[in-house]
Amino acid sequence: SKTGENIILYTNSERLYRRSFSASYFLYHVPTRTVKKLAQGQKVFVGTLSPNDQDFAYVKDNNVFIQNLNTLNIQTVTSDGKLNSIINGRPDWVYEEEFALSTGISWSPNSDRLAYYRFDESKVREAQLPYYSSDSLYPEQYRYKYPKVGESNSTVSVLVYNLQNRQSIKFSLGEQNDQYIPHFKWTTDNDVLSIVRMNRLQNKLEILHGYFPSGVISAVYNENSSTYLEADNHLTYLKDNSFILSSERDGYNQLYYYSSEGKLNQQLTQGNLDITSVYGVDESKKLIYFQRYYNGPTTKRVYSVPYMKKSEPTMLKSAMMENMTADFSSDYQFYTSIESGYGKPTQVSLYKAKGVLLRKIEENKLLQQRLSDYQFTKKEFFMLPVSNDLNLSAWMIKPKNFEAGKKYPVLFSIYSGPGSQTVNNTYGGGMDAWYQYLAERGYIIVSVDNRGTGGRGADFKKCTYKTLGILESDDQIAAARYLGTLPYVDASRIGMYGWSFGGYMSSLCITKGADVFKTTVAVAPVTDWRYYDNIYTERYMQRYVDNKAGYDSSSVLKYAERLKGKFLIIHGTFDDNVHPQNTYMFLNKLIELNKEYDSEFYPNKNHSIYGGLTRLHIYTRITDFLLRNL
């Protein structure tokens, strides 16, 4: 809590989807060291403490409840929640996945009102996943709402509940499906709720102010794009309800300062370095703290910049001067720097806001010593030329006893999705250890950030619009061709590994680039974008009816007949994100064409394929396949 007197604890958590979970919640009162059981000991979702420490809001059975922490009495905010029909207080599956929402409730500054989502998903079509149990002769069928390309979405409403009169008001946002409300939050004014609205194609974005108790809304900001916009614009409100946000409208993601009425006061940052995070505003010093790229797309640093005058950003101090994130105290008088680099595990240090080091909280000395004992080889960062006017960020790990006159096989490890990056100067943990193991067995490991990835401005990221996968795979194939010309690379032994979007790319490269790639491994791949959810896919591809040629050309099934290398495809049978349907349909096509492949399925495992010894099993399977076939 803001006072520091109460701590909300949860335990016995049970995951639902990527970000959502139910749990048993407790209130720990610090001065008296006493514990109270909340929500009558039941497992609930999104438990949230009010700013004044008096109430606890939560969601159970798709309904919102508020429990007073003194009396433990419970108010019922909604009562119409119904499985696979009406959700109150938390997002539906596709909002959670694609707008990164973990909650659907928000307390007002004065703690007397609670804003909440209402999703009517009754018209959204269901997906079904089998779950196999030793306790049942027949598999269970898990059903949930999953809107695919061109299909109906939930009708989304935003309401505000008044704790005094126990009534809710609904904001007038339109009762149509072809719009999104990806975020809402209270401004610093207890009577004004900020709501972000986007059209279905996600190329128009509005910031609306909803006024309580009238329910009237007004637009204070509008932005349009010829391609698409990001829903997360780091919207931050100041005490006078002026606000700061980020936008890519000048070609790179920059910060802008607006009045409470939506008038542009000034652009706060310029140049060719994208803003990636906003940490908050110190109004006493008139400074905003944020993260952006530093000297190119592989490293990020933390900066401050004044918002009341024009000035260049100032970089914050840190112990390592490596890739950095930060966490600030509520008064912005202190911050912790959290940083790492390749081969340099995370270090956490506490600073005064002026950059004075107070103490090192975690240096990870034991892990640093362990890494030193293993004597891992260096990860080399470089720009890889794929054409006369295009160079791509890349890294390479060579075998420990590298011989210049010897030819080595190469394994690409990629992701490649919109705005993503795998070429980062950060500590890679277990994945880097796996790369080192393969390098020790005589492989060169490479990663390349193709067109469409992040860190190089809007044009570079959005040039793949309506043709998702085509330019990306072109770049990876061209990168493999270039590496094949190097004197120490065996051009006949180039392979690729990828998961999710990376699995999609691996599938494209072993088919579309069959003459270049000998072996690939695809984990949980999309194989045809028509099978994926509509918020993600239509953002980059529009609807199928609008862009049939784009969908058809980006489908892995289109290139299946070209497959001639060794191909391993892996999927969890309970993948709620990228449905196993993607793999099954591709395998059907390969069988129809009498093409050979290897496959591995993990019963009851989701998109992450983890739990127990599962990760050990999957990477043992992948490693053995690569050692035999690449």
Q: How would you portray this structure in words?
A:
The chain has 630 residues and is of the alpha+beta class. Helix content is 16%, strand content 38%. The chain contains ten helices and 38 strands. The strands form eight sheets. Strands 31-32-34-33-35-36-37-38 form an eight-stranded mixed β-sheet, with helices on both faces. A hairpin with a 5-residue loop joins strand 27 and strand 28 (334-341). The radius of gyration is 26 Å and the shape is globular. The model has no long low-confidence stretch (mean pLDDT 96).
**Main beta sheet: strand number and arrangement?**
8 strands, mixed
- The structural class is alpha+beta
Apparent shape: globular
The helix fraction, in percent, is: 10-25%
Main sheet: strand order: 31-32-34-33-35-36-37-38
Q: Give the CA-CA distance, first to last residue.
A: 55 Å
Short description:
With 630 residues, the chain is of the alpha+beta class.
Secondary-structure topology with pairs:
Blueprint: E1 6-15, E2 21-29, E3 34-37, E4 44-49, E5 55-60, E6 63-68, E7 74-76, E8 86-88, H1 93-98, E9 105-107, E10 113-120, E11 126-131, E12 140-145, E13 155-162, E14 167-170, E15 179-186, E16 192-199, E17 204-211, E18 217-224, E19 236-237, E20 243-247, E21 254-258, E22 264-267, E23 275-282, E24 287-293, E25 300-306, E26 314-315, E27 323-328, E28 334-341, E29 344-352, E30 357-362, H2 365-374, E31 379-387, E32 390-397, E33 408-414, H3 429-440, E34 444-449, H4 458-462, H5 470-484, E35 489-499, H6 501-511, E36 519-523, H7 534-541, H8 548-554, E37 566-572, H9 581-592, E38 598-602, H10 614-629
Parallel strand pairs: 33-34, 33-35, 35-36, 36-37, 37-38
Antiparallel strand pairs: 1-2, 2-3, 2-4, 4-5, 5-6, 6-7, 8-10, 9-10, 10-13, 11-12, 13-14, 15-16, 16-17, 17-18, 19-20, 20-21, 21-22, 23-24, 24-25, 25-26, 27-28, 28-29, 29-30, 31-32, 32-34
